[in-house]
Amino acid sequence: MSTERSWFKSSYSDAEGAECVEVAASPGAVAIRDSKLRDGGPQLSLASPAWEAFIDRISIP
Question: What's the burial of 1, exposed, middle or buried (CB within 10 Å: 0-12/13-18/19+)?
């Protein structure tokens, strides 16, 4: 079984590579990383309910 994640860059990230955030979903969790630090950089992993609560909190109606 592969542990490779499919990362997606934020639509708010600019084309220059600054302020880029990427997320990757897996069963039960979402990983978040800085796309400038892809190889070996820190990653934050949130359980799916915590990610959903975070998105609900920051979403603009």
Answer: exposed
